[in-house]
Design goal:
The protein is built from 4 helices and 8 strands. The chain is globular, with a radius of gyration of 14 Å. Helix content is about 30%, strand content about 25%. Strand 7 (about 135-140) and strand 8 (about 145-150) form a beta hairpin. The model has no long low-confidence stretch (mean pLDDT about 95).
């Protein structure tokens, strides 16, 4: 059974946190689906992941190509077609308690400065808690990531 980790982003851009988490997921050997709500935004993230000045390389692709199933990291608005064992939700993309139970990890990234994303993250937490799914809430408010709550 997996776990959902909520990341309350307040100190750096979401794409930087996403890159860090993707690197850790790949180190763990997980195939990842980055699930968003807007194809344009995912295309922008795709470009950022290729051009960001990072120490590591994050092999990935944008869903809709001929090699989706081969991508270690697939950016998508729907279900993962790459055998993902980890889903990273951005911009309020939906996840279900059943997905949390079936995957190794679900990460929900949300911008702490965006009131809509805060409301969405709270709405995502409740059904997971009600389903007795394992969930953790992490905040970078102090300048480093700290676990603030767990179910």
């Amino acid at each position: 059974m997996g776990a959902a980790y909520f990341y309350h982003i307040t100190r750096r851009p979401m794409e930087d946190t996403l890159g860090m988490l993707l690197g850790k997921a790949r180190q763990a050997g997980w195939r990842v689906a980055v699930r968003g709500t807007d194809l344009g935004r995912l295309a922008w993230l795709d470009e950022r992941l290729w051009t960001a000045e990072k120490d590591g390389f994050l092999p990935h692709g944008l869903a809709g190509g001929p090699h989706d199933a081969d991508q270690p990291i697939l950016l998508t608005t729907g279900a993962a077609s790459n055998g993902a064992t980890c889903v990273m939700s951005v911009d309020g993309a939906a996840v279900s308690p059943e997905e949390v139970a079936a995957l190794d990890r679900v990460c929900i990234l949300f911008d702490g400065e965006d009131p809509e994303q805060l409301v969405t993250a709270r709405a995502q937490w409740k059904p997971l808690k009600d389903a007795s799914a394992s969930a953790q809430y992490w905040s970078e408010e102090s300048g480093r990531w700290e676990k603030k709550a767990e179910t």
